[in-house]
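Students often ask why we bother encoding 3D structure as a string. The short answer is that it lets us treat folding as translation between two languages. Here is a chain of 330 residues written in the first language.
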Amino acid sequence: LLRADVAFQGALHRGNEPKIQPPAEVRHFIADIRKHPEEVASWLDWHTFDAIVDWVVYTPEDAQCDVELFQGRVGQFVFISSAAAYQRPVQHYLIREDTPLANPFWEYARHKIACEGLFMNAYRDSGFPVTIVRPSYTYGPTSFPLCVNSREHPYTVADRIRRGKDIIVPGDGTSLWSVTYHTDFAEGLLGLLGYSPAVGHSFHITSDEVLTWDQIYGELGRALGMEPRLVHLPSDLIAAAEPQRYGSLIGDKSCSVVFDNSKIKKIVPGLQPKVNWAGGVRRILDWYHADPRRCTVDEPANARWDRLLTLYRRCLQDAGNLADAEKNHS
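And here it is in the second language, the structure alphabet:
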């Protein structure tokens, strides 16, 4: 929140303790905008804002709530959508902002698409000053941007690498992907704030570095001083064992994506990501290793992945036996 009548930066949140503290000059306001929008509306009375960025809009109902709360109170409203909203499977290797929005595999992405539509209708119908931002896989020092990992215990895959355990990688590991360090994303986002020509437009903000998943996991291993033991499993097999990953894998990370960032660079001249994955992954490990209490491990996930790897090897063995039987029969 950037308030127009009195210069300050504020964060409206639910009171959860952040892993990384924001700058001291940021004011904090505690409220749950989804459960108690009336509290937020009361707090907003008599205030207007240059810019508001909402990171927690996940459904059309959330979007409608924001339109009703902030109409007439903000010069620019930034909706954080997702690059997962872009067409899947991709029909052209290079993704631009005019790439169609369609993702039949992932409800999260479809909700983001619906939110975009609602905000743009409000812009066309009543001038609601929305700017849409579509991040791809954005990470900071507290998270590992990997395909298959534990959400609650992100260090789990790093621990598996350190212990010489097999690491699951979807597909054949050659799908192209882009991971973006949070400060690089922030530079692009800040360049949009207060820029009135950006209203009514959408932008993705991603790194220009394009890597395969094998390269991403391989760099993590090198940062740990180990060569990771990568095992390539079909994405649909992983999704069958962990159904909660279906949308994220089939509708996103198993697809090759390359982003054209020329539109954001026209608005933010000189925008150039400063942290590549080789540097970013070492920042992650530095943060975790600075306090061993952060290096927690998800043992149920480990057990589940080991069972899946055993099943996969058994299938490979059975396939080999079938081939031998066919050869002997002929």
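Translate back mentally: The longest helix spans residues 299-329. Keep this in mind for the problem set.
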